[in-house]
Every structure is written in structure tokens, then in C-alpha cells.
Amino acid sequence: MLKHLSRPIHGSAGTIARHFTTAFSRRTSHATPSEQDHVPAAPPLSRNTLLKPHLNYKNFVKNADAIADNIQNRNLKGADIHAVAALYAQYTTIITNLNNLRGRRNEIAALTKAVSSPEDRQPFIDEGRCIKETIQATESELSAVEDSLLHQGLQIPNDTHPSSPIGPELNARVLKTVGTPRTSLLAGFELKDHVALAGALGLVDWEAASLVSGTSFYYLKNDAALLELALVQYAVTRATARGFVPVITPDVVRTEVAYACGFQPRTSEMSQIYDVTTATQVADSPRLCLAGTAEIPLAGMYARKLMDERELPVRLVGFGRAFRAEAGARGADTRGLYRVHQFSKVELFALTTPAKSEEMMEEIRSLQEEIFEDLGLCFSFQGLPFVLEKFSNHHLPFVSQRVLDMPTEELGASAYRKYDIEAWMPGRNRWGEISSTSNCTDYQSRRLGIRYRPASTKREPGVEYAHTLNGTAIAVPRIIIAILENFQLADGSVVVPEALRSWMGGKKMIKCGA
Questions:
Q1: What backbone torsions phi and psi does residue 402 show, to the nearest 5 degrees?
Q2: Model-level pTM?
Q3: Structural domains in the chain?
């Protein structure tokens, strides 16, 4: 892949470039604090870039075999840890040569001043001129090596939690299952899917959206529009009650920020991302894209920031629109609202010290389960007290739910570990993801420059990289699917979860023509 850059360096000049350093921080591949010495910081991605990723190249080299296994376990294409190791070795050789040349240049300068005769100075002047030209030429050559090292380093995924299952999605470990999947037999009538229900109840207009925006877009109307607003307000309220600070995020972000968060697909860089351009935009201006999730602008809020440890943990709950360009590429999943190009989403985000990130992951998961439980989606029938007298228990709407520890091939590049929460969706006759939680350790913070000063330490003074975590509080279309399909009654009406009624004018039922 990079054979032209992996040749050995010959001669005293070699190839030289600017020296740049990066402080190592502890990664999950067991690099100790004493091993976290200075290494090159990745150079800017372009002359207009705002971010300078700080990758732990020494850790990459030391743990190359384990990282290669991790790449294989994740079934990633294009990530080559051995290319990174070769480029880093080349870099260190060049830096050694550069230091030698600069040392000789200083010696020559001193010798030139020490002699008074022009004839005696001339050889030193000639050698100094030669060294200067060599340094200038080889600095630009090493610039290409640095760029290649950065490019290859950014393809390396996060480490993987030792408890994460290995392999494809079917290897996911079920951590919890609550309730029994609802079927037509249990309900006592033929269950409809959300597309049929939405059509009969006048909730969604796909035809008009297709004309206006294209396939996989939609209009939410009538009670569905109120349902979205209620879900957003409900989730934000529950999160703020648990100490999360509310944020309304921008939907347009710099593409480099999206990439720094690991929001890249496994196949094509552009298959998930909508680029934003303007008629007056110059070719080399910073690229913009539509955010795929509020996680991206929430993480970006803290880019290039240095905090004190006492400021951690940071808990944020953000609301924004999520844009996914790949929505139409997954067959049956594209029916209705399940996989769409644009949707509203409430996102949980946290910054912690490395020692606290796993604890925070469990806190986020607990909040997610609480949100769904109180909606009546997963753990109880709390949304339906007023129908207790009208319907027998086997007619009661309910949603079975399960929590999964996701396997390696389902982890995004940034995720160290990921939990998925799924709801049973009768219309699909299978489980559907409604939420996820990821611990990204220092993957995003190294790329965004999110650091903190430890409160007290016996180590030398310094800074460390924070850990970032994210989780879905509400992905509106998926929750609407779960509510419509599981809270439907035999007459075609749908029960409104009790937790949402105060934001829907006290409405208890969604009925045709109501």
C-alpha cells in the first residue's frame, strides 16, 4: 500500500521534516504512564484544518499484533497497522538524521566564526550552504511521510473491551430481556405494521415527501407531529432531571469534526454523509456536512479545550436532526420510518476521566432503560391504566425489550464497547434497535484535542485525554414505530403512552379522524 514510503533512509541527510510532538496518554492496550513519552502529533489535514489529531503511535507500534487482531475481529478494510509501524519507524529515522544535520549546522556556524581568514572560512560556508539546502529539501519530503502516517493512523479503530463478543451481529450477547414479544395470537387480533396504521390514522405522508425531497423522507402530520414533539420534550426533561445539561446543537458541522468522531462507514467515506456546498464556496475552504447525530456537535463543543479534572464529568443532552445518506441501501429496513434520511434525535453525551468511563456507560444505559420503561415501551404497562377495565390482559398493548452487548463487527471505529437496546416490532416480526450506548474512551478526544489536568497526582505535571461516551435517549421514528405497532388496539386506534399525554393536550388515544 505504501511501499514507496517504506524504503530505508540512506545518507546523512536522509529525508527530514519539521519536528512535532505528542504526549502519550494511557490507552486500553496497556501502555503505562512511563511509556507515554513524546511522539509526533498528526499534522493538519489541510491548510484550513482546525484540528490536529494526537495519535499514540508508540502504542500502535508496541501493540501492533494485538491491534492487527482487533482490526480482523472488526472485519475492517483499509486499516493497516503494519503500514503505520513502518511509517513511524521511517519517521523516527528521519528525525534522528535531522537532529544530526542540525547539530552539524551549529558546529559549522561556530567554526566559521572562529576563523578570521576568508580562505579558511570558505569550506565551512560551502558545507553550511549544502546542509541548509539538504534540510530544506528533506523537510518537504518528510511532510509527505507525516501526512501518510496520519492518514494510516486515522484508519486504526479504537481498542475493544475484552468482554465484547467477537464476530458479526448474530453473536451479540443478550444481557437482559423484558416482556414477551407481542404477536397477533397474543393480542387477539391481526396486528398491522406502522405503515398501515399511519396511513389509516393520517399520521405520515410519504408521497408528498418523495415529491419534495426524495425517497426515504417523510412528513409527520396531526398526532404524529405532536408525538414527536412530546417525545423530545419527555426525553430532555428526564435527562435534565438526572443532571444532563440541555443543548440545542447545530445540524451543520465541519466534515473533519465528523471524521474525528469516527463517523465513517466501513465501505465508502461519503456513503453516510451529506456534504454541504454553496455557490460561492472556494475549492479549498473547510468542508461542511450535515451531522449524522448530535453526538458530533456535542463532542465538537469541547474540541481543543483543556479542563481541570474537577470539571468532570460533563453530562450533556442534545437535540438535533440526524442526517444519514445511506438510508436507501438496506432492503427491507427501508420500509416506512425504520431507516430514513432525516430524523429527530435526543442524544446523551458525557466526558469523564479514564477511570470513570465504564461507570458512566452504565449510568447512561440506566437512564435509557428508565426513559423507555416510563414510556411503557419495555418493562411495564404504565401507559395503559385507563384501558384496564376495557380489555383483558392478553389484549393490552405492550413492547418487549432487550439489551445487547454488541460484537466486534458492529462496533463503529470510535467505539470501545457498545450496548444496543432493541424493541420488538410486530410489523417487522423481529427486534429493531431503538437506542445504543458507546464508550469511545480517548478515540475522539485524541482527534479533537479534549484534555484535562489531573486534580492531584504523584506523576510529573501534565495533561490527559478525557474519555467520551454517547447514547441515544430518543430516536423519534423508531419510537413512533414501537408505539404504533405495540400500542394498537383491535379497532385501529393507538394508545398514547401516559408519560407523553401532558405534552399532547391530555390525549389518551390516537383515532382515525380524531
A1: -145, 155
A2: 0.83
A3: 3-154 (no CATH), 169-271+289-507 (3.30.930.10)
